[in-house]
Amino acid sequence: MRRLMLLRHAKSGRPDNVDDHARPLAERGRRECPLMGIYMVEQGLLPDLAIISTARRTMETWELIRTAFPKDITQIIEARLYDASAKAILDVIHETPPDVKALLVAGHNPGLHDLALGLIRTGSQHNLSRLQQKYPTAALAVIDFGASNWKVISEGTGQLERFVTPKSISGLSGLV
Predict the structure, then answer these.
(1) How much is the pLDDT for 137?
(2) pTM of the predicted model as reported, rounded to 2 decimal places
């Protein structure tokens, strides 16, 4: 089995005279990241490998989330994820080493949203419906595959295990 976690960067700011790639997180984004990290730890959603877009807001999202993790996670900062299409993201996923069972990819919309919708074959109707409507900032889609390696992950082969946002988990299990 393979588990893919698609994480959209948290809410970012839009400061004047800062190009898109260099945009930092907004205050709301900084508040939401630790919440997502704690949730991931409590739910056992720890990746073996994290592949992170080079955009500042995505790297800041990952750094704030990973502080909740009880162990270091191997990470790759990947330029191809910035402003990437679903196909480009999937190409990166296909390069994942076979010993990685749980992979986290942190990136951007619309690529992440399109990829998630394309990969999913089944899942709870409630979560599928929410995902179809919107992929908000700091949202996490967890998709499971009955695949023996990452090279065979393809359209319509995944099961949406969960789709969570900071708003949907606030107040759960002591999270604020």
Answers:
(1) 96
(2) 0.94
